[in-house]
Write a structure and sequence with these properties.
- By secondary structure, the protein is mainly beta.
- The chain has helices at 2-12, 229-248, and strands at residues 20-21, 25-29, 34-40, 49-53, 61-65, 76-81, 86-91, 100-106, 116-125, 128-130, 134-138, 143-149, 158-162, 165-171, 177-178, 183-187, 192-197, 206-212, 215-224.
- The strands form 4 sheets. The protein has a 5-stranded mixed beta sheet with strand order 2-9-8-4-5, with no helix packed on it. It has a 5-stranded antiparallel beta sheet with strand order 10-12-17-16-15, with no helix packed on it. It has a 5-stranded mixed beta sheet with strand order 11-19-18-13-14, with no helix packed on it.
- It starts with a helix and ends with a helix.
Length: 250
């Protein structure tokens, strides 16, 4: 009886056969959107897919279904790509209260088989992030860093500081901008501000902070030496060719 019991339990466990998969953990800034891909096996192409919230799948609350009219669930949208065999869920304007466990689900039907599902945990934070935390620029050139912040920091002063030296900070004015110096800042007031560092010097290399209110995120800047190789390798053949042509015409 033991082998039979194990087989029945395996068939009834959600996601036990691994027919649905997705990402495991996501961190999203407050006020922003997130899109989650849910992959499924070919046999589920024509099945109904859904997205629900809850610690346990069997008790989760449905938020969107592929057999419901588009937009019926408010800020949650679901689409199914039958060719790629992936349905995607987009959640908009996320708030901290939206943090928790969610499930990609495929309705299977029948009394001997539970729906196939995959879980993902979403954490919504009001902190900060950057698109690229390791930035490289060439001496004499410039680099731009996009710093992202949560909705509640929309009206906060934005700063760019050298790590370990708060006296080095430069900040935005009442219009959300900083102009006229080697560091420029422009805040779109919608969740992102861009820091541009001009006329890079090797001494600019090191760790920095993007800051909004009391929140900070670290960025490392590497400054590489100015390149002169291209100029020396391309100019010599040109001069040689010119003199050769000139001698042949005399």
């Amino acid at each position: 009886m033991a082998p039979v019991t194990c087989i029945l339990l395996l068939l009834l466990l959600p996601g036990a056969l691994g027919d649905v998969s997705t990402v495991k953990d996501l961190v999203v800034l407050e006020g922003r959107s997130v899109t989650i891909p849910c992959h499924y096996d070919p046999q589920y192409t024509r099945h109904v897919k859904y997205w629900c919230r809850g610690t346990l799948k069997d008790f989760c609350s449905s938020l969107a279904r592929t057999d419901s009219p588009p937009g019926a669930s408010g800020k949650v949208a679901i689409t199914d790509d039958l060719v790629q065999r992936v349905f995607t869920v987009t959640m908009k304007d996320l708030q901290e209260g939206d943090s928790g466990w969610y499930w990609c689900g495929v309705e299977v039907g029948g009394i001997w088989r539970a729906d196939d599902t995959a879980s993902v945990h979403i954490t919504v934070t009001h902190g900060m992030s950057v698109l690229n935390s390791m930035v490289v620029g060439e001496e004499g050139g410039s680099v731009s860093i996009q710093c992202l912040y949560g909705y509640r920091h929309r009206d906060s002063v934005k700063k760019w500081c050298r790590s370990g030296d708060w006296g080095s900070c430069v900040s935005t004015d009442a219009n959300g901008t900083l102009e006229g110096g080697p560091v420029r800042i422009r805040d779109d007031r919608r969740g992102a501000f861009t820091v541009t560092v001009l006329a890079l010097e090797t001494s600019n290399a090191g760790w920095y902070w993007c800051a909004a209110g009391q929140q900070q995120v670290a960025v490392h800047l590497t400054v590489t030496p100015r390149s002169t190789t291209l100029l020396s390798t391309t100019s010599t053949p040109f001069i040689f060719t010119f003199h050769k042509i000139h001698q042949e015409t005399q």
